[in-house]
Amino acid sequence: MYEGAVQDLIDELGRLPGVGPKSAQRIAFHILDSDPADVQRLATALTEAKARVRFCEVCGNVAQSEKCQICVDPRRIDSVICVVEESKDVVAVERTREFRGRYHVLGGVINPIDGIGPNELRIRELMTRLQDDTVKEVILAMDPNVEGEATAAYLARLLGSMEIRVTRLASGLPVGGDLEFADEVTLGRAFEGRTLVGS
């Protein structure tokens, strides 16, 4: 559609998750219209992130050294591990300021269509972390979709033989949501996870 370098830029941007052809084109032309110093800062940030960011050897979260900030924090609770799919999920849980335990990042979910089985995830590392009897509870915090449910069910079966409490994040109606717009699965989950009101 466009000549050489412009089309190459659009094509590369279009390969990013969540960026469709129109968005890729808009971003490309924004970059072309930007000041060269701004473009250089973006390029530097990309190459620096790729060169310096690694994955924590303990939990699999993004880090700039061998261990992430959460794993080296002595104020965290060692007896509870929240298992999440990706590092971005750690950020989402941390924003709630409700969880003070440790994390374990799987690096994805079981998805046979994409050729991702349990061996492609950091499940073996999780099992190793649970060997010393320090952890008393594992919270499964996968997305409430088919792949997330399959992964949670697999982990629940795997952990079932251990002396560890295994819990799953509650799911249901969002705050501010309307019943009439809720799908059947979400509404069903809300009924299953209902709580007692009053005494």
Automatic annotation (TrEMBL):
- Keyword line: DNA damage, DNA recombination, DNA repair, Metal-binding, Zinc, Zinc-finger
Family designation: Belongs to the RecR family.
Q: List residue spans of C4-type Zn fingers.
A: 56-71
**What does this chain do?**
May play a role in DNA repair. It seems to be involved in an RecBC-independent recombinational process of DNA repair. It may act with RecF and RecO.
Q: Which GO terms describe its biological process?
A: DNA recombination; DNA repair
SMART domains attached here? TOPRIM
Spell out the protein name for this chain: Recombination protein RecR
Tell me where on the tree of life, at the top rank, the source sits.
Answer: Bacteria
GO molecular function terms noted in the UniProt entry: DNA binding; zinc ion binding
> What PROSITE patterns does this protein's entry cite?
TOPRIM
Database matches in InterPro entries: DNA_Rcmb_RecR, Rcmb_RecR, Rcmb_RecR_Znf, TOPRIM_dom, TOPRIM_RecR
Q: Does the keyword Protein transport apply?
A: no
Domain Toprim, residue spans: 79-174
Question: Pfam families annotated for this entry?
Answer: RecR_C (PF21175), RecR_HhH (PF21176), RecR_ZnF (PF02132), Toprim_4 (PF13662)
